[in-house]
Amino acid sequence: MTDGPFICVRGEAVVEAEPEIARLSVHVQSQEGDRRKALDRLTERNQRCLELVRSYGEAVEKVETGGLSITPLLKYKRREGDVRAYRGTVWIKVTVVDFGVLGELVARLGDLERTYVNGPDWELRRDSDVYRRAARQAAHEAVGRARSYAEALGAQLTGLVELSDEGLGRDQNIRGPVTLAAAYGGAPGGAEEPEPIDLEPETQVVRATVEARFTATSPDLDAPLG
């Protein structure tokens, strides 16, 4: 353990960047009086939705099925009774990388029968260089702040004792995502394609904080203040 003085500081950085991916959550539903018919109808609508999404090729990076359910709907809520219908739901998760087609895709998905679209959720990739850039800026800020304190005391930094990462993350979205719901009847046959929705990517804000402890030479407390 050194006998010299320590200078402890916190370095902070805020970096703004354009999002790299957009996530959509698509729910496809069916509701029929017969269980098998509800499942068959759900299968048809799910396939139609997947075909639409896959038609965008490399603009869509990933398509995943998040879950499937067939739920009986009873006539009476407070006691056992006859089933009045069966409701099927498929949850599809879509990751889009080409924002130029996003507005069109969202509009066309929302136009499908009994299809609900939530999104987009704008994000950075987990391994985005933006996070590393924010961490580096926070570390540089810590060094600069410690050096400034040392110079104010007539001292100089001599070494780094400890550097700890206090936090690195993206600010959560303040506004909620767009939500679209298609009419149960769906678009009438032969209807024109819906107009694309104008979607502006949401700026991503990454914050990084580090705490650092430096050793320094003995301060010159008798030196005149600058």
From TrEMBL:
State the source organism's domain of life: Bacteria
Which Gene3D superfamilies does this chain map to?
Protein of unknown function (DUF541), domain 1, Protein of unknown function (DUF541), domain 2
Looking up InterPro entries in the UniProt record yields: 26kDa_periplasmic_antigen, SIMPL/DUF541
Q: What is this protein called?
A: DUF541 domain-containing protein
